[in-house]
């Protein structure tokens, strides 16, 4: 009998208990073992829940119980989630998590600690919600050098952008819906300011390069400045506005950032709507591979958490051997200012830049230009007046 403890009984924690219970019979058959949810750690009580009798408030009960061999951490936030995770790994317990904040900040140390203690630290649910992405990159793309990853990595912001564009909904209404549906972070600033996507892109960048960049140091822009006018002009130019996490490995230098992009309608990421996420991986042998699915939400994310638990229970490949990151040094990282792409300049009134194509609508205009670096964009911005409303990167 394998005993499991769940840390945090919020959206994903309760979803994990639900998935483990609803599909228990066939999961046990698949793994060749029986399991039991022995404890659920939370500050709150849940008297009406079928799991009410499992709830404990003291982490030490779990840490000191030798019967607990798998701990599923779904608390969110860095502390005490990191502290509890590392304590469990040191005590010889496997840890699985959906906590991208912890993986992106402490992943190097946690993977190393797991390997040193002969257990596993798995985080399939930390990127892309229910989409299988971490394990396929590690296992199924193992023969490839991964050159580039671009993705829609945050379900809440994609939901908001879709509702703004397709239904003319206000930002605030769409955000409230995303919160009601259980997509948004406890502090939605993490979603709308791009912080959640930054955490996810550094995890993907680490899978591609072996180097984990501190997510707080990467260029991160959110969606709060995007207007309905921008979305209309984008459509006229043949683009959709998406919040993109981007990473590229070139000449052993890594670039990673998050920003709203105008994505050409010919790029499959442009068609990913609502809470769905999509990740395009370019690798040297396979070419281009796309991953798509629900990027947030209770049962999709729990599905990925339980996949990690199943992996451990069925003693599948030991990927502690392949997750061997080092923390990125400044010399590993490419200069963001030298990054170039075609740009779209948006103006209140007439366009003041020359470019490939200009469109206008309702007093606003937008021009698609040739490739420019950040530095070139900043130089142009400094010369233009206040009628310049925004400059978008393109994919
Ligand atoms: N708030 C996150 C999102 C949850 O909207 O994508 C899934 O990581």
DSSP summary: helix tally = 13
How many domains would you count in the coordinates? 3
- N-to-C span: 50 Å
| Count of DSSP strands | 18
CATH class of the largest domain: Alpha Beta
Which structural class best describes the helix and strand composition? alpha/beta
Going by CATH, the homologous superfamily of the largest domain would be Dihydrodipicolinate Reductase, domain 2
Fraction of residues in helix = 25-40%
Describe what this molecule looks like in 3D.
The protein is an alpha/beta fold. The protein folds into three domains: 2-129 and 297-325, NAD(P)-binding Rossmann-like Domain (Rossmann fold, 3-Layer(aba) Sandwich); 136-294, 2-Layer Sandwich (Dihydrodipicolinate Reductase, domain 2), CATH 3.30.360; 337-394. It has 13 helices and 18 strands. It has helices at residues 11-22, 24-31, 59-63, 81-90, 100-116, 134-140, 155-167, 171-180, 189-192, 195-209, 228-237, 298-313, 374-383, and strands at 2-7, 35-41, 55-56, 68-73, 94-97, 121-122, 146-152, 211-212, 219-220, 239-250, 253-264, 276-283, 287-294, 326-327, 340-348, 357-361, 364-373, 388-394. Strands 7, 9, 10, 11, 12, 13, 15, 16, 17 and 18 form a ten-stranded mixed β-sheet that branches. β4 (68-73), α4 (81-90) and β5 form a beta-alpha-beta unit. Bound molecules: L-homoserine. L-homoserine is lined by residues 129, 154-156, 183-185, 191, 196, 295-296.
List keywords for this structure.
six-stranded parallel sheet, binds L-homoserine, 28% strand, 3 domains, Dihydrodipicolinate Reductase, domain 2, 18 strands, 395 residues, ten-stranded mixed sheet, 13 helices, Rossmann fold, globular, alpha/beta
